Amino acid sequence: MKLTPKHTAWVFALLMSGTMAAIVSAVVTAVNTGVDGEFVGRWLASYIIAWPVAFVSLFSLKTTVMAIARKITAHPE
């Protein structure tokens, strides 16, 4: 099954939130608990919580953040 262009926003949100949640949760886990033999388990436990939060946040705030970005960059409406 191939997704259509109407699915682009959802796919983008899934990919971007998944990537950002993976990076941020890994860094925060490493800083707070160190990197040892149990790191991957702790990171995955954190990531399982972080990804849905990141997805909902990204998808629900994208319009507001884009409006702010347009104002900061003097983008014509």
Name the beta content range.
under 5%
Mean pLDDT: 93
Question: From the helix content, strand content and strand pairing, which structural class follows?
Answer: mainly alpha
Main sheet: strands, sense, barrel? none
Radius of gyration: 16 Å
* Shape, principal axes of CA atoms: flat
Number of strands: 0
Low-confidence stretches: none
The end-to-end distance, rounded to whole angstroms, is: 36 Å
- The number of distinct helices, counting runs of at least 4 residues, comes to 2
- Helix-strand sequence: HH
Q: Kindly state the percentage of residues in helix.
A: over 70%
When the domains are counted, the total is: 1
What is the topology?
Blueprint: H1 8-33, H2 39-72
Fold and architecture overview:
There is one protein chain. This protein has one domain (11-72). It has helices at residues 8-33, 39-72. The protein has two helices and no strands. It is flat.
Summarize it:
The chain is mainly alpha-helical. Helix content is about 80%, strand content about 0%.
Record keyword descriptors for this entry.
77 residues; mainly alpha; 78% helix
